[in-house]
Structure formats: C-alpha cells, structure tokens
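EI: anyone free to look at a 771-residue chain?
SC: sure, send it
EI:
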Amino acid sequence: MTNSSKRPPAGLPDKDTLLAFLREAGSAEKTDIARHFGLKGGDRRALREMIRELEEEGKLGKRGRKGFSEAGALPPVGVADVIERDGDGELYVRLVEASADAPRAILMPDKGKPGPAPGLGDRLLVKFQRGGDGWEARLIKKLDVGTNRVLGVIRKSARETRVEPVDRRSKDVLLVPQAQSGDLRDGDLVLAAIEKGEQRFGPKRGKILEHIGKEDDPRAASLIAIYAHGVPTGFSEAVEREAEDQALPTLKGREDLREVPFITIDPADARDHDDAVYAARDEDPKNPNGWIVWVAIADVAAYVRPGTHLDREARDKGNSTYFPDRVEPMLPEVLSNGLCSLKEGENRACLAVRMVFDKDGRKTGHKFVRGLMRSHAKLSYEQAQAAIDGQPDDATGPIMEAILYPLWNAYHAMLKGRLKRSPLQIESAERRIRMAPDGGIASIEKRASLEAHRLIEEMMIQANVCAAETLEQKKTPLIYRVHDAPSQEKIFNLADFLSTIGKPWNKGEPGTTKRFNKLLDETRDGEYADVVNEVVLRTQMQAIYSPDNVGHFGLNLDRYAHFTSPIRRYSDLIVHRGLIRALGFGKDGLTDREIAELPAIAEGVTMTERRSMAAERDAMDRYIAAFLEDRVGATFTGRITGVTRFGLFIRLDETGADGLVPVSTLGSEYFAHDDRAHALVGERTGKRFTLGRKVEVKLMEATPVTGGLVFEMLSEPEPRDPNAPAPRYGIRGRGGDGPPMRGKGRPGGPKPRNGSKPAGGLKGVRKGKRK
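SC: here you go
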C-alpha cells in the first residue's frame, strides 16, 4: 500500500487511474483497492469486472496469492538475488520468488555504500524504479543469507591452490592459503568460505570448511547437488533411537483388513512401499456394474508423532530426495524401508479409503478406516503390465482372476470419469539414468509410460480427493495441493508462439484444460508436437502447498490434498494427522499448535520440494555431462527448446540432454533476439533460428563437474520471414555493409551485450512439474 496521505475522490476509478495507483503501490489486493478508492456495493462489483478485463488485456498480473500489480511491474522495494553479469560487467537482479518470466533489473552502481560491492549469488534489499531502457535496482543493503560459501573443486599449481566453483552461475574462484591445502589434491571437492574484507583485484581469498570427495567419483554428481542446494543428509542419534524404539502394529484401535487382498505396484527398484490397492465388483443392486476400490496407505502418523525428534527432522527435510545413485530419505531406513513399508506378507498399520464408483467412473461415496493390512503380492509396473498383456509369471499368474483383472476393469470405469473431467494431457518425456555396478552410468533411456502407471496414478488421485473432501466436511484445517490457472501474461506468450507455427489462439479465450488438450491433440502427430507440449508445460503455474484452496488446475479438480505418500512427503503426514483428528481415530492426530502453524508448514514443504527438484535436476545434468564427456566432437540431432538473447538451448533426441549454442558462435552475422517470434534473427539477412526447429549440432564441451554442455550449430538458419520488416543493418563489426549495431538493435548507445557468451555458464530447461 502507498503511504501517500492524499486520498482520491470516492468512486470507481478509470483503468488508467487504477494502473497508476498500482504502479505507485507496487501491488495491492482487491479489498485494498476498494478501500483506497472508497468503493462500496455495486462499485466493488464493477471493480472486479475492471480487474478481470485488465487481466485479459495483459495489463495486470498476479502478485502472491491475492494481490495484483501492473503487468511486468516490480514493487518499490524488494529482496532480490544477483543472477547475472553481462559481458560489460554489469550485474542484473531478479526479485526473490518471482515468476520465471518476471523482469530482471540492472543493478545501478552506488559507490557511497560501505563494504564490498555485490557479486553473483548475493541477496540484496533494493529499491526498484523504471529507467529509460527497463527496470533499475538501487542497493539498500546486502543481506547475509550464507551466500559466502562456495562448493568447488581444488585446482593446484606450483604457485597456488584455487577453488573453482561447481555452480555454472558463479565466478567466485577462491585462492586458499598453502597452509590449508597441504593435504588436498587436485580434483578434490571442498566446501569453502569467502573471507570477508576489501579486495579489489585478483581472486577472492577463501578458507576450506569441509572436504567432501573427489570430482571423478562416480557419485560426485549427487554429492555436489546435495551440498550445493543444502539438502539435509543423515539423521541425528536421537532420531535413530526413536525410529528403532517402535513396536510392531496390532489390532488395537484398528479394523482388521488382512483378508482384503491388497497388492503393491511400484518401480522395480523401489525399496519403500507406501500404497497398496484392491478392487472388486460392487454387489449393491443400486449400483449396477459399479466398483469398489480400496487404497491403503502406510500409517506413518502412528510412528512419527507431533513434538518428537522424528517429527522435527521430518519437517526440516520436508520430503525425500531421489538421485540416480542414492536417496536422501525423509525418515530413517528402519521406518521408510521397514515398519512403514507395506511389505508382502507382513502385518502393517494403514489408513485406508474404500471408494465406490458407478459404471461411468463417477465417485458416489467413500469411507476412511484405520486398519491393519497385509500385502498379498509385490509387483513392479512392468510385471503387472506384462500380466495384463498376456504374459503372466509365477507371481502374477495365480492372482489374475481375483486381483489383477478386477483392478484393470475398475480402472477402465474410472477412466471414463477422468476423460470427462479432462485434466491436462501433457506428455512428459522423462529420462532415466541406469547405474552400472561400478557406480558409473550404464545407459540413459526414456521412461516407459505404461497403463499400469496410469492405473495407480488415477487411484491415488481419487484417494487424495477423498482426503480433501472428508477434512472439508469435518471442518478440519488442512494443507491443500493447489495449482493455479495460468496467468494472462503466460497465455499471451503462448498465443504469440502459436502464431509463428500457424496455430491460432485467440488471446481473449480462457486457458481451460479442455482448450489446452484440444491444442495438444491437434499437434500430437505433427512436427511441432514436442515443442508445443513443452511450451504448454511452461505456460502452467507451479503447484504449491497451501492452507487456502484455489483448486488444482492441471488435474481439473476443485479440491485436492496429498495423502498417499507419507513416507516421503511431510505434507501427506499432516493430512493423515488431520484425518485421525477429524474421524476420531486416536490421540496422535493433528494438534492445535500444528493447525496454527499450517501456513508456515505449507510454505516450508513447498520450499523443500523445490529444493529437492533443483538438486535432482542438477544431479541429472551432471550425470548426463559425464556420460557424454567422451563423445565431445560427435554430432547429434536435437530440437531448439529455448531461445534467449545469449543463445539457443538444444535438447538432444538421444539422451534428452540440454545444452547451449552460444549466440557468438552462430557465424559472422549478428543475431538479435526477437522475443515475440521466439527466434534469433540475423540483422543483415533476416535468417532465423526458431523455437521448436529440428537441428544438427556438434558437442564442443561437456563439463561433468558443472553439468554444462556447449554445442556448435551445424544446421543452416531458416530463410527470412517474408512478413517481417526488411533487415536494416549489416554484419556487426566485421566489415558489413551497414552501420555497426549498438544496444538493442539501434545505432549508437552502449555496445551490444548479447554478442558474447554470458558469464557463469548456462542452465538447462526445466524438465517438468509435480502434481
């Protein structure tokens, strides 16, 4: 809110006045806007309509959960990270927790501030304002958030020892004292601290905090990711003692479900099994051809109780983190792979939901029970699918009629309801790294998408819906899994891209799941199928946890809560405790204190999930770079999946690896970034490299320690767009036939910043989003 004491005249403002107010305030909620302009009754309804129109026109954007700001605007004051240094040494910052397409701001020099100048990775409190060429940020103060630590590799020479950072975005090479480096060897992985104090020239000084391992260790990729992102590892002695001091479950306070023939279906290498399923025909004559579907989930709440050491460390971890060679679990192994794992033939405590579906897949009722169950079979996805496809084995053959066929028939009924609901049908081309016995990489392959995967997914989704519905009905607070609809700005960007491939999208039409699915169906078998799928994925918002429900756009559900994975997600454990409290299942349910802390818990588990996702992505990038290191010089086919001012992101067909073709290597012609056309365009000839195009590239660099891949473009650019304006200038700085290019395609002004490789390396495209 603005601090101005001057009040506007009471009454509905026009659009320009409203935008001017938001420009000054930075952001505001509808109630704040109405209060500022003194609106009541019908004027408030008119304000809502005006805000909706401004969103559709792309002039308003969301800020936080309920706030609004001018599209592309930044607040007057905010916390920002230094994200980039360009070829001229200028620093750029981005607002913390901003959306991926939020504007960056150039950090203006301020020699009057005491202490060392800001650098890459620093977190700052800044004042934002619009400048002549975009947003500017002025430093208020540096914030100490532990960014003085560097994870790096020892590089020794006869004269000195340096620490080179493994983060591609960092250029903080540290010089460490000889007294500290005597026992270190070239290639050692270390955690170092930047020494404080003024230093104007040469590398910064540092000291070694911890020796982590060796860069050529096959497991180095996950080690680096764990340390770089601060993923908690191991467990305290107190937690291990509490985990071991647990008794086997009994029938006390539980319903006996041991005769229900539950089975688990998981990845072949899974060690923890937190969900089991069973289905049977509904014998109720009022539900002809209907189905009963049971989903049983490990009762983790029986072992991890509020206020214990186990609970505190589980909350700090937030979730398990999965790497190709290891798992950093949320719970100790004695629980995650023992008492809480629904092992075949062993009694296990569970929370189960019995769901009733009619023949068209519509859920007509459900009931939760706290029970004691026993899994009748442990199957892999491939094993279950092979059995249904007519190739049963010794484990699946005896249970085909009683268990597997009913499960699949129930799923096919549920599928009718899913298709009617029309959730987003984005196809994720995930890759899987297979590790060799020696710790190296055996292969990188595309994950198979089986009907068995979709069966378990749909049954888990319906169980999650039941959890949210029950807690709402019992008026028990909960943590929802929410996924907001795409912003108008993202829809406009999508429409701009689709216009370049001849697929019309009216900017005024809403982005519903049915509309997205129609687009995906229309392009599924065409040359742009992969890139349309990718762009639709990027158009979506990120799912988060929240005590406030806005629904789940991607699944097209009004209410949704994670219930099915309490072994590996703290959010699910909170939902379990809520059900125990709401349904009177015991004294180990959600406490009043936890209810008061739900907003903080939701924010915390959202943060830990993103931390794990970033660590998993970085480890994958490093493993892929190690796999391709001995193929430098080889040629590959791929597709342009990203176009930026500094180059083209390429995704290889063979491995799904992402790397960069720097703009400076595209030839003698200067290529400018056309963001509306999603293309790099030659300033002299108008030839283009466009998003989605199939290309051939040569691998020039593969750096396992950073995960960086650099390519050389072998394919020729496409011809000039005949509808585009004719090129005005010649080759930049190489004897061209026009004036030299300056700045953003204009004569004069500062020298261009996108003609050279950016400092700090480059990051691959995001792989996907979790439901």
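EI: The first helix runs from residue 15 to 25.
SC: 👍
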